[in-house]
TrEMBL record:
GO biological process assignments: glutathione metabolic process
EC number: 2.5.1.18
Domain of life from the UniProt record: Eukaryota
Residue stretches making up the GST N-terminal domain: 39-118
Name of the protein this chain belongs to: glutathione transferase
Amino acid sequence: MCQTAVIRDDFCHTSSFCVQIIIKFKQMSKLPFEPAMGDEVILLNFWLSPYGMRVRIALEEKSIKYENREEDLSNKSALLLQMNPVHKKIPVLIHNGKPICESLIAVEYIDEVWNDQSPLLPSDPHQRSQARFWADYVDTKIYETAIRFWRTEGREKEAAREEFLECIELLEEQLGNEPYFGGKNFGFVDVALVPLFCYFNTFSLYAKFIHEAQYPKIVAWAKRCTQKESVSKCFPKEQDVKQNFPQK
Ligand SMILES: N[C@@H](CCC(=O)N[C@@H](CS)C(=O)NCC(=O)O)C(=O)O
């Protein structure tokens, strides 16, 4: 399945309704803080992108000052094409003029460069490999099945639903009794997964089947994460998502 096409269609659509909301949100994207002295941090982003949210959450966790620049995905800026000539996608983190593409790579980069506070990846190499494994699982399995569920109808939708719930069950086990996938602290896997819950919160479609009784740990985890300021400030407002997203 071509994730790019799906995401373009669903999360980060490039049609005319998108153009309108991009204009509307361009004003909102101007964050009130300035880049830190000597460090210029720019994020090429699109407000509805779960991938962009990951990078913002990581920057917020580290209290990094950055400029969020909204891209019009139907008319990509010359800067985006120059900074990400291979995939031509957001998010792109630009640190002192140098691009870092792909959201999980950008989150790792942020963790390495600003390593003095809120570590996202564990220092132990084996634990670090496990965090990368689960973040990759989130990317390749969870996002993919959630998007498939969103896009399809009938039997295909039902198959995607079952597959998605198997993934959630696995994550429930993986979380165990810890508050976060990062253990006691919010970490890399949490950053990778939590943006998806912005849509779960918004659309009853998802909320209908991630039942608290069945998945108490994941539901509690999602609540815990979304109560964090670094997460909540990067989530678009529920009514904005609902207003601008084709309803199912
Ligand atoms: N694997 C990429 C996915 C990024 C992605 O799919 N970005 C979408 C927005 S959500 C995009 O820029 N789409 C524009 C296009 O495909 O032309 C990441 O993790 O950064």
